[in-house]
Design a protein that fits this description.
about 250 residues, 4 helices, about 25% helix
């Protein structure tokens, strides 16, 4: 079906030949997918590599749907619906797809509804009614040992860009808290990464890495390797009878 819709579908060559027949990947413009077949089912994961945080690509990101640019997201919705529709013509199935949300607060509410750990069974509840509730144990304490409550404004330094962000927090699972950054964006942050702002906390980027001793040593090492490769190339060219002139800066 996806081939008929214009996807380039083929076996995933990144896996061993022994099991490759059960691994498939495909692409249509900027929308990609990876699929895996199991003895009693299968999985299809759609993703894109235009906007991603993981350096290895969008397939390894969390919140893949939320990171999709608008038009790619519409394509995903179209083909996901086609897959579900196709399945319903083949076998009797129950659609338990994640609740679709438009705002950050709706996304938090959907997490509560879809989890078996919370009493909420539908989206018809006020998220702010949970404000002030905490969590017992170490998972309810921030990095400074202060109690965290739903609705509190907390800060955290994001590993991806080194910046300090703030937002309203709501308990998720285990040590994680969901931080609502703005109308649309959230982050799932460990409790020990949350804190109240203190004078010693820098709101800007972390120290410029180009000023660190480690960075200077690394760059010196790269320059040394580059010089050695250049020297070897010159020796080889001269051995072959070429006239080589090196301009020194």
């Amino acid at each position: 079906m996806l081939k008929d819709e214009g996807f380039d579908v083929h076996h995933d060559e990144s896996v061993s030949k022994i099991i490759r027949r059960n691994y498939i990947e495909g692409k249509r413009r900027d929308l990609k997918f990876k699929a895996q077949r199991f003895p009693a089912g299968f999985e299809i994961v759609f993703y894109q590599d235009i906007v991603h945080e993981n350096p290895h690509g969008g397939f390894y990101d969390f919140d893949k749907r939320r990171k999709m640019p608008y038009l790619i997201g519409l394509q995903y919705e179209k083909y996901m619906n086609l897959i579900v529709k196709k399945l319903k013509t083949l076998v009797e199935v129950e659609d338990k797809s994640s609740i679709r949300t438009k705002t950050a607060e709706e996304w938090v509410k959907a997490r509560y509804v879809e989890s078996c750990h919370y009493p909420q069974t539908d989206m018809n509840f006020d998220l702010h009614a949970l404000d002030g509730q905490g969590h017992e144990g170490q998972y309810g304490l921030d990095r400074d040992g202060k109690e965290i409550h739903n609705g509190d404004v907390k800060y955290f330094r994001y590993w991806y860009d080194g910046r300090v962000y703030r937002g309203r927090v709501y308990y998720d699972l285990n040590m994680n808290w969901i931080v609502i950054l703005n109308k649309k964006d959230t982050r799932v942050i460990s409790c020990w990464e949350l804190f109240d702002l203190a004078p010693e906390d820098n709101l800007h980027r972390m120290k410029d890495p180009t000023r660190s001793e480690g960075y200077k040593k690394h760059m010196a090492h790269l320059e040394k390797l580059k010089a050695e490769k250049t020297k070897e190339l010159v020796i080889e060219l001269k051995r072959r009878g070429y006239a080589v002139k090196i301009e020194r800066k």
